[in-house]
Specification:
17 helices; 3 domains; binds flavin-adenine dinucleotide; binds iron/sulfur cluster; Fumarate Reductase Iron-sulfur Protein, Chain B, domain 2; alpha/beta; about 15% strand; FAD/NAD(P)-binding domain; about 450 residues
Length: about 450
């Protein structure tokens, strides 16, 4: 039989042109057409020992779903993905595939790796999720928070037949997927669809409920047979520099929440104003910094400069997001850290003074550390500064839960089954890992659901 010729280069995904996308918050990358998706899927070599599966944190059966897609069996493809990941449309968009499933893809040795995330997104966006027959169980589980860890845990337990109530402090569901990641990367409609599927599975929701304030943790323990804590890491780390308290110095979380949740870009129709019209400086080098920078440009900034203390190679942001930010006009200043923010008599930000740095040895995370260069300072004009240097767990709230063990960083301590120090209380996602990724949070949610099932079946 003649050997089939395999296309070495990826099928490119179409993007909206820069001039067009800067006018709105709509998604930048378009979906593969069915023909494009099949063509990309047909490049997969169907490896016997697929490294892609090993490198996906939830070990989706990647070659199997891709084969089903290539054979136009999309119902089969979604069934395979949902075995391991309930949020395909979300993860297909936001996972850092280049350091996960696509990193060691065998096709990458002779050409471009298979675009696994884009294929997963295609299946998630275009295929109806199957309905599930539930065997009802007479046990109730409370899920605290509604980010990817909680959504996954709730969905998995609902499938297993438990009565699930999700408690969310905000008025809408989704956690960072909703208030952090902007529409141009993850449309809210896509998230709403994933959440609607959980409602179909029987998950109940209570929004505007801050557990620990609106309802005590003890009350929850009395009312439910088990609890999952997925409260994330939403507390900004401070810069600890002079001028940090000036007007127009925002944490990235507040800046993005005003845009994503309170729709400040539609001020007038919505109540929350956000004035962005001068030079914006964003401090940080992760996804949060890229989201803040790209959002600031869309909100009307004259210029946006990202100040990062290491080099581009060490930036934790997804490669694709850095590329999109550059295309859109975001400027980068590497090897620099902020020293102080200076303002005028009215307390308005005027400039930021930075110090240059150089790279040193590898740190405990395997990244090269930065060494500030004494006396080497420079000034950037700024009318708005956004702090995107990182996030912590809300220690005050967690410490108010009697008997809940935390580590020195304020993360909840769990055993290998994600059971906390409190009987019947499990935890997962950022509240355990510190600020991590969507798929690691979802993976934890799934693992915790199975641990809770085991615990309640004993
Ligand atoms: P969260 O998503 O933080 O959800 C926690 C939820 O709990 C929140 O809704 C919060 O309101 C609620 N809550 C907290 N306390 C209480 C309480 N006491 N009572 C009731 N509810 C409570 N990861 C990626 O993989 N790719 C990306 O591209 C990416 N981009 C990001 C961009 C931004 C701007 C941010 C901030 C993060 C990004 N991340 C990304 C990280 C990722 O979003 C998180 O790792 C993930 O959302 C963590 O999920 P979680 O379920 O643990 O918590
Ligand atoms: Fe890749 Fe993320 Fe999908 Fe896993 S969940 S296959 S890492 S895109
Ligand atoms: Fe296909 Fe790449 Fe996975 Fe091999 S490693 S099965 S080529 S996606």
């Amino acid at each position: 039989m003649p050997q089939r010729e395999i296309r070495k280069t990826k099928v490119p995904v179409r993007q909206r042109p820069v001039e067009e996308r800067m006018q709105d918050f709509h998604e930048v990358e378009l979906l593969y057409t069915p023909e494009e998706a099949r063509e990309e899927a047909s490049r997969c070599l169907q490896c016997k020992n697929p490294p892609c599966v090993e490198d996906c944190p939830v070990h989706i059966r990647i070659p199997d779903f891709i084969r089903a897609l290539a054979e136009q069996k999309t119902a089969e493809a979604i069934r395979i993905i949902l075995e391991d990941n309930p949020l395909p449309s979300v993860c297909g968009r936001v996972c850092p595939q280049e350091v996960q499933c696509q990193k060691r893809c065998t096709m990458g040795r002779i050409g471009d790796p298979i675009q696994i995330g884009k294929l997963e997104r295609f299946v998630g966006d275009t295929t109806q999720k199957p309905s599930v027959q539930r065997q009802k169980r007479n046990k109730r589980v409370a899920v605290v928070g509604s980010g990817p860890a909680s959504l996954t845990c709730a969905g998995e337990l609902a499938r297993l037949g438990y009565e699930i109530v999700v408690f969310e402090a905000l008025h809408e569901r989704g956690g960072v997927l909703l208030y952090g990641i902007p529409e141009f990367r993850l449309p809210k409609e896509i998230l709403a669809r994933e959440i609607a599927y959980l409602s179909e599975l029987g998950v109940q929701w209570q929004t505007n409920v801050l557990v620990g304030r609106s309802i005590s943790f003890e009350e929850l323990r009395e009312q439910f047979d088990a609890i999952f804590l997925g409260t994330g890491a939403g507390l900004p780390k401070y810069l600890h520099i002079p001028g940090e308290n000036l007007r127009d110095v925002y944490s990235a979380n507040e800046f993005l929440t005003r845009i994503n949740l309170m729709k400040s870009y539609r001020f007038g129709e919505y109540d929350t104003p956000l004035k962005v019209n001068g030079d914006v400086v964003v401090i940080g080098g992760g996804n949060v910094a890229m989201d803040a920078a790209r959002s600031a440009l869309r909100m009307g900034a004259n210029s946006v400069t990202v100040v990062y203390r290491r080099t581009r190679d060490e930036m934790p942001a997804r490669v694709e997001e850095i590329a999109h930010a550059e295309e859109e006009g975001v400027r980068f200043v590497f090897l620099a850290l902020p020293l102080r923010i200076e303002g005028d008599e009215q307390g308005r930000v005027k400039r930021i003074v930075c110090q240059r740095a150089r790279l040193g040895e590898l740190d405990e995370k395997g990244r090269r550390c930065f060494i500030p260069i004494e006396g080497d300072e420079f000034v950037l004009p700024a009318s708005l500064v956004i702090n995107a240097i990182g996030l912590d767990t809300n220690r005050i709230l967690l410490e108010s839960i009697a008997g809940l063990k935390l580590d020195v960083k304020g993360h909840v301590v769990v055993d290998e089954s994600l059971h906390t120090s409190l009987e019947g209380v499990f935890a997962g996602g950022d509240v355990v890992l510190g600020a991590a990724t969507v798929i690691l949070a979802a993976g934890h949610g799934k693992q915790a659901a199975h641990s809770i099932h085991k615990y309640l079946s004993e």
